[in-house]
UniProtKB/TrEMBL annotation:
<dbReference type="InterPro" id="IPR013154">
    <property type="entry name" value="ADH-like_N"/>
</dbReference>
<protein>
    <submittedName>
        <fullName>NADPH:quinone reductase</fullName>
    </submittedName>
</protein>
<dbReference type="Pfam" id="PF00107">
    <property type="entry name" value="ADH_zinc_N"/>
</dbReference>
<dbReference type="InterPro" id="IPR011032">
    <property type="entry name" value="GroES-like_sf"/>
</dbReference>
<dbReference type="Pfam" id="PF08240">
    <property type="entry name" value="ADH_N"/>
</dbReference>
<dbReference type="InterPro" id="IPR036291">
    <property type="entry name" value="NAD(P)-bd_dom_sf"/>
</dbReference>
<dbReference type="GO" id="GO:0016651">
    <property type="term" value="F:oxidoreductase activity, acting on NAD(P)H"/>
</dbReference>
<dbReference type="GO" id="GO:0070402">
    <property type="term" value="F:NADPH binding"/>
</dbReference>
<feature type="domain" description="Enoyl reductase (ER)">
    <location>
        <begin position="11"/>
        <end position="326"/>
    </location>
</feature>
<keyword id="KW-0560">Oxidoreductase</keyword>
<dbReference type="InterPro" id="IPR013149">
    <property type="entry name" value="ADH-like_C"/>
</dbReference>
<dbReference type="InterPro" id="IPR020843">
    <property type="entry name" value="ER"/>
</dbReference>
<keyword id="KW-0521">NADP</keyword>
Amino acid sequence: MARLVRFDRLGGPEVLTLRDVAVGDPGAGEVRIRVDAIGLNRAEIMFREGVYYEQPVFPATLGYEAAGVVEAVGEGVSHVAEGDPIAVVPAFSLTRYGTYGDHVIVPASAVFPRPANVGAIQAAAVWMAYITAYGPLFESGEVRPGDHVLISAAASSVGQAAVQIARHIGAVPIATTRDASKRQRLLDAGAADVVVTAEEDLPARVKEITGGEGVRLAFDPIAGPGVETIAQAIAPGGHLVVYGALDPRPTPLPNASSYPQLTSRTYSMHSISRNPERLRRAVAFINAGLATGSFKPAVDRTFDLAEIADAHRYLEASSHIGKIVVTVNH
């Protein structure tokens, strides 16, 4: 029997319960892993609340990321074997698989060996954040060395990954936060400059930082009417990439009569994680950064699996910087 987190109705963290469930053997193209650590993501909160692009099928599980050890492999799986230390990347549907448990089955396409110098807690904090940031900052080819990049909500795990990737490729990361108390921590984490949006005029401050030019790319998880303000901070010919929807209000499309020429688009990490060739490149890029120490996942706090509801409450409070990880005691 395994201990798995399940929920039978939509709602807050209180709907999550830890249950004893028979897991069984992996099928063809699947892997069963012993989970040592789980990375939490806002997508899982949205899934639990019923506002994600996929809807739960009850009894439902959840969880996109984990790190652990392979226990068994199904037919046709050859890139990992029993006993291998691995990480699970978010390359599957939450309606079919989940990582919230001490022993879980996941698709083999989402399982990758992890570098020897990366422990389970760090490995569980990597993939959603770094793949999300990798797409617009590297895969797209839109950011060049020396370019300024605006990273909204930079205290998040994705924001922290974006700062590190920008630095790694020679770009200049400008972080934003609403909370002035996070300014120094963001500077310590590698941001070249920090704009506190509750206190400062974002376009004016960015123009000051960039010598009047604006940023090459703005990377935003908030959406809503605030994208119009962000657009004013982008250089002509630059790019606005919206990858989240923390603000549920409608998001206007910046138009040529009000803003410099720019490309505006939405982006999903799944455009990479569910494309085998793009995912292969992303994993190679990120693992190389982990192996050399260029990428260091920021973990704000850990919780035990039995504290999963408290861990979700802490994530919802948005007071953290970096990743929240749940550890599993066997």
